[in-house]
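WARN  no MSA supplied for this record, continuing single-sequence
INFO  ligand: S-adenosylmethionine
INFO  echoing inputs
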Amino acid sequence: MLSNPRVTIDAIKKYNFTFQKKFGQNFLIDDHVIGKIIAAAEITKEDTVLEIGPGMGNLTQHLAENAGKVYAVEIDKKLIPILHETLSSYENVEIIEGDILKTDIGALTEGRKLKIVANLPYYITTPIIMSLLEGHVPAESITVMVQKEVAERMAAGPGTKDYGAISLAVQYYSEPYLAANVPPNCFIPRPVVGSAVIRMKIHEKPPVQVKDEKFMFKLIKASFGERRKTLQNGIYNFPELDISKEAVADALNKVGLDERIRGEKLTLEEFARLSDILGR
Ligand code: SAM
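INFO  complex generated
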């Protein structure tokens, strides 16, 4: 299988494949790590899996062996004929050429409940995760390899240095769990940064109630706009919001928070309460 480094190296030579930096291509060549991804995602024959960026099929081969059905969406045209060969013995895999950010996932997978799995291209990790979460894609879970620091930010709690808008977004839509740390030598070519596998179990119902989630996320974005700013100044100076300093101070008082508090101290629950007070 391609997860054996020698097989991947031979395939690269056979197909005369050249890595495209612009697509964030780092292929996984470690069976043990692939096993951890499959275990974290809890893939069974009952499952339909959507894989983002199958590359040459290193992870896809294992997904196909463990899942009922696999949809694999790959942007690099040159990889499509290669994937048709490396996955030719699996009848349960559908290869789709396309950009995941422009793919109608619900239509492609006919509304089936999905487990999303990927060794993500690092250059667009956050846009991909945010579009899956905010787009309310029909997913039970999202299990992805990302840059280690990104995984830490996604799972961080209030008051820690890694806590920010991405932590709040991930935790509003899901329950994150850091499944494994992965060193650079598990990939060809080796990335310059460390990686980690994170699994997000999608909440059936968000953990907090808020009247307007879009407005709450604008407030969150404003609050983390500049690290040294207080939340009050961040919101007041945020062009899309048009909220006075007094209104922010008043709302903070109602929630029982200090006027000089910084965004990184607030819990999701507190942002939801502020949002309900400040929203119109
Ligand atoms: N899954 C393979 C593996 O683990 O060996 C490849 C992972 S590699 C880190 C990321 C893959 O995502 C590449 O094959 C790249 O071409 C593909 N990709 C990059 N941007 C994409 C996009 N917007 N939509 C779909 N695939 C994309």
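Residues 23-28, 52-55, 58-59, 73-76, 79, 99-101, 119, 121, 124 surround S-adenosylmethionine (CB under 6 Å).
INFO  checksum written, moving to next record
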